[in-house]
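User: I want to check something. If I give you two sequences, will you return the structure for each one separately, not as a complex?

Assistant: Yes, each is folded on its own. Here is the first sequence with its structure:
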Amino acid sequence: MSTRTLIRGGLVITAAEELHADVLIEDGRIAALAARGTQAAAAWSADRVIDASDKYVIPGGVDAHTHMELPFGGTFASDSFETGTRAAAWGGTTTIVDFAVQTVGRALREGLDAWYAKADGKCAVDYAFHMILSDVNDRTLKEMDLLVEEGITSFKLFMAYPGVFYSDDGQILRAMQRSAANGGLIMMHAENGIAIDVLVEQALQRGETDPRYHGEVRKVLLEAEATHRAIQLARVAGAPLYVVHVSAEEAVAELAAARDKGLDVFGETCPQYLFLSTDNLAEPDFEGAKYVCSTPLRPREHQAALWRGLRTNDLQVVSTDHCPFCFTGQKELGRGDFSKIPNGLPGVENRMDLLHQAVLDGHITRRRWIEIACATPARMFGLYPQKGTIAPGADADVVIYDPGAPQTISAATHHMNVDYSAYEGKQVTGRVETVLSRGETVIEQREFTGRAGHGRYTPRATCQYLS
């Protein structure tokens, strides 16, 4: 039976335009938009009418970098696909792209099937997968082709974490060559892990065990060097490259130089690098452990370069790298040895609000907010225009956003399954009011009305920025 929803009276904001318009939704998709007060809008009728007066009507966020239930450092990320996607919905994100993990010595298919099983029937919003390549060899290179055909069109490699996820330059080159042929996109964790491990060992030998040393050993120059090396390998392979969680001014400069040459090189940063710093890592009484992630938080002066990169499009996407570990019992594994602190921060619920605050603070425009959080990640990972915009034919993933509502970010009120907030006490203006996923209400007037299993697996096309 056909169902129609009408959203009246709001300011529709997409990456391309802002329009006072009514939005008609039919059978889970955007059916039409009409400027407010026009005959077309006045003639519409619907089973349900949502009043968006004085509110923004924006596309649901696309978070292209999450890690639900990720095994890491002898423990697991504390959000399941059920709790993590529910928290995403609370924060106005209606699609996540998570990472399936290949175990060394095992097939890509085995890892992918394990992640299908983790997520199936659990998600409150739609989801897709990237594939982490931990073991590049002839067999897994052939598997890459098969995965691209079934909608897993991006592959993450690590220049960090020797003995866990690390790939050497030869393996990286081979994977890039394969992606150049099959249309896949290589995502790179760009840090010189071999050199970092030397610095970690030396720091611990000196008795430098506190969380702040995590930031000191993972040098800015070792992120910049790895970013440069990844770009050159991609040039040799003739492949596109997407560098994840860029945190440092010098790494942004490498991306900008590559893009100035016309190369298909893209960069992502995360809210933690835009709003937090090494000051947080240095918090006393082991509190700094809450902020241990990789790439690490940088000195505050790097933030200006990241914001500038977002404005100039040298950085295109803001994702969260949501990978939460509870302070009690998980982050505490690294007491006395910072290298044993599980790497990761919670943030899937906070991204849209923090970026709206950035609009108010003058860092970005409203349309750029939607571009870096919705439209570009959807295009980058082959989900557009099904996701990332409000246009006829798109999935009705729609957020009614109250731009004037004040809120204080806190673990006491968030919905992520983690016992602290990385932004505890931060006051922001703007808040999600109602969220629709494929036309179905999952948040209504600040009440969760969704359900586990509503979210669908969404196969992806290849990167839409490549000719």
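And separately, the second sequence with its own structure:
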Amino acid sequence: MNEEPSWISDLNDEELEFVKCFILSSGSIKKLASIYSTSYPTIRKQLDKLIQKIRVGERKENDKIIRLIHQLEKEGKIDQEIAETVVKEYGKSLNCLITE
């Protein structure tokens, strides 16, 4: 069985439902706006946030610093709680840096 991409596990239930609806509506933002009883710009904004979150997740997955932190944790040089805190805070800083 294939492992799911990490960006999927980064999404909460509401975001996964939004992605599902987006796919089932054939990628039509207009249809999604109707489903969610909201405006096109609101759906577009929500979609842009998801795109940004996925890009940040992919960046974090390939980031040398995060890989180093996970390696240090694996080797027992830092504990899991510290590793998670550092990765989380570093991830927040990536949100500010990635603007694509």
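Because they were folded independently, the notes below concern the second chain alone. The radius of gyration is 17 Å. The mean pLDDT is 85.
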